[in-house]
Amino acid sequence: MSRMSVELGTEESRLAALCALAQQTRELMDAVALTDVGEDDLTAAHAALTAVNERLRSVLRQTPQPFEIAPDGTLRHLGNAVTGGANPHALPLLIEVRDGGVRAEVVFRPLHEGPPGAVHGGISAMILDHLLGQAVAAAGSAGMTGTLTVRYRRPVPYGTPLVATAEYTRTEGRKTWAEGRISLPDGESLVEATGLFITPSAWIGA
Ligand SMILES: CCCCCCCC(=O)SCCNC(=O)CCNC(=O)[C@H](O)C(C)(C)COP(=O)(O)OP(=O)(O)OC[C@H]1O[C@@H](n2cnc3c(N)ncnc32)[C@H](O)[C@@H]1OP(=O)(O)O
Q1: How do residues 119-134 score in pLDDT, each as one tens digit?
Q2: Per-residue pLDDT tens for 111-165?
Q3: Ligand 1 atom 49 nearest Cα
């Protein structure tokens, strides 16, 4: 009698391996940003990475991992530059949706340095752009960023636990506004943003 074997979760297992590789790559980027080893070690690391790079590039997708439904039923986007577990560029940010808005704990790293000793303003803006967009989506009005206004109140430190929050504010037709901030755990606001998100006419056939 022949047996039929059904492998469950093969793709999930591969995606987990991809996320583990992305995490290792983040740690590699951190190491490259901070390493103080000598030239021989730098040259050896370069050669080793060249080999890894060639192996990974032997089979390439056209685009990063797409939006998809995860096994737990939630929507995920592993290729996203802010939240995607499979994207080495992502922190990745874990966003919690709760009554009245969204929230994420953030620890920036030396890799994110802009001015000496602080986080690059574009990195803060990127995090806030995404968080405001999630607040809009959580309110049922998904859209693309039309405008993002950022006020930098204090330098954002790296290596320190911070809190990022955002809330939907209002909607007029296809336009939805949200506001948010990155704060110290005691609530002191470091960076604040307001954003206009527009549901593209193409999405609704308008
Ligand atoms: C859940 C996931 C969260 C992810 C959050 C991440 C958010 C992002 O980073 S999105 C990427 C950055 N944003 C973009 O790439 C957007 C690029 N722009 C576009 O695609 C289009 O211009 C888009 C969608 C904004 C508007 O296009 P379209 O639907 O054709 O709008 P259109 O019909 O021209 O204009 C509609 C209204 O919006 C206004 N408007 C359009 N664009 C803008 C803008 N950039 N700023 C202000 N107002 C605008 C128009 O003036 C018009 O106003 P009114 O109705 O009062 O006359």
Answers
A1: 999 999 999 999 999 9
A2: 999 999 999 999 999 999 999 999 999 999 989 999 999 999 999 999 999 999 9
A3: 146
Cβ neighbours around 2 below 10 Å, total: 3
Instruction: Kindly give the distance from the C-alpha atom of residue 205 to the centroid of ligand 1, in angstroms, as a whole number.
Output: 14
CA 22 to ligand 1 center in whole angstroms: 31
By most ligand atoms within 8 Å of CB, the mutation choice from 144, 148, 201 for ligand 1 is 144
Reported ipTM: the value is: 0.96
Please compute, for residue 69, the number of CA atoms within 13 A of its CA located in the half-sphere on the CB side.
Answer: 3
In the chain, the domains with their CATH numbers are 93-204 (3.10.129.10)
Which atom of ligand 1 sits closest to the CA of residue 147? 46
- The C-alpha atoms of residue 108 and residue 115 are separated, in whole angstroms, by 14
Any idea which residue has 């990022």 for tokens? Answer: 164
* Residue in the block written with tokens 């939630």: 74
Q: Which residues contact ligand 1 via a Cβ below 6 A?
A: 129-130, 133-134, 137, 142, 144-147, 174-175, 196, 198, 200-201
Using the Cα atoms of residue 97, residue 99, residue 105 and residue 111 in order, give the sign of their dihedral: positive
> Among 50, 47, 96, 87, which residue's Cα sits nearest to residue 67?
87
